[in-house]
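Posted in: Structural Biology > Protein-Ligand Complexes

Title: Requesting predicted complex, PXG in pocket

I'd be grateful if someone could produce the 3D structure tokens for the following input. Sequence and ligand are given below.
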Amino acid sequence: MNDLSTLAALQARDARHHFHPNTDMAALNAEGTRVIVRGEGVWLHDAAGRRILDGFSGLWNVAVGYGRREIADAAYQQLLELPFYNTFFRSTTMPVIELSEMLGQLAPGFSKVFFTNSGSEGNDTIIRMVRHYWKLRGQPKKSAFIARHNAYHGSTVGGASLGGMDYMHKQGDLPIPGVVHVQQPWWWGEGGDMSPSEFGLFAARQVGVAIDRLGAENVGAFIGEPIQGAGGVIMPPDNYWPEVERICRERDVLIVSDEVICGFGRTGAWFGCEHYGFKPDLMTFAKNVTSGYLPLGGVMVSDAIAEVLTAGGPFWHGFTTSGHPVCCAAGVANLRIIQREGLVERVRDDIGPYLKARWTQLGEHPLVGEARMVGLLGALELTPDKGARAKFAKFDEVGSICRDFAYQRGLILRATGGTMLTAPPYILSEGEADILVNTAREALDDTVVELKKRGWL
Ligand code: PXG
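-- Reply #1 --
Done. Output follows.
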């Protein structure tokens, strides 16, 4: 399909009735939405007949790439065999048994998995589970959560409360009581005159300061993404997580690793916490558990927590579709692909280092203050002054300008403020990695021209 009048008609129908998430709808509808019609490998095709390299894996989640028949077949077979049965009434289904077992094997020390439909529901589940756990342990006051500014933990009331996005809080009278946000470990943006390792310790110690201010007897858990995703692919200094772990253990505060983006190989380890060498008590997952082919999320529960919860009677929590058999069948097929094709190792040893070597060269571009990458998660900080780590006055707009130039040139990148993000599928070839970086460089050049035109540079 590359008939532009057909595209305009589709855009008009979308504009009439579809309420897009996180979107200025008036602006979008004036411009016309993109209509994506097909995907193959790392490539998308839109209704205007264009082929675009998806440098962002859908929404961080199409790890195995588009067009995997094996996942489609597994879901289809399950739809024919048993499209639904619940897991509430003393029941389970074959895909749930299989996926729980696989997850247990992939995450040693996490003997139980609780299924949800999304990462947001996973984090809401965490709030209820942590509070339930501490009540069972006879410490009902341990109900507060420490999280970070600019974290993303989802869009439900609980998820958005744990998240540290002010613009989300403002719209919904959030956060809910009992959530306290502390310094994020973004050295490039907020490290000031400190060295990265000084700043890593400083940021970690803010967790301790917050716990001590509330009293450890009132704090249930700390939650963090190993690498903040939506906040701007923020890799903390190496000493951050070990110090957070030490602080939380010392104060008997649980650690939740939100693995919704980092989980299932994105960092080159199965889970982001392994990459950074810390051991959480609970892990939220979603996204790449099915590579986005069907919605699925959940919470991995450590042996020690699971033991208390198992002995504690029913946990009055769950969703109709907790452990949906079709989604779990897709999850099993997806994880089998990742295992069989050695995709986590590929991210760690092969395409990850290859893309990183090329991506970090973008750090030499006059507009780029820092180019960083771990596994297949990368960021570029756009700056008017490299040496000073300065941000553009119109920080939120420069990234969108660069993102739009990239799209015009056939590459999807995401912008968070003035930070450009990439998270390509694990199957990216070296040739495709070259295209990704070369196109990103061209988009940076386009952005320089545009910013000069506007007098911002
Ligand atoms: N935790 C993390 C770390 C996430 O990245 C969620 C929880 C929530 O998952 P669900 O499945 O409820 O969306 C996420 C989701 C963006 C963007 O703009 C990022 C997410 C979702 C939507 C947009 O980068 N991450």
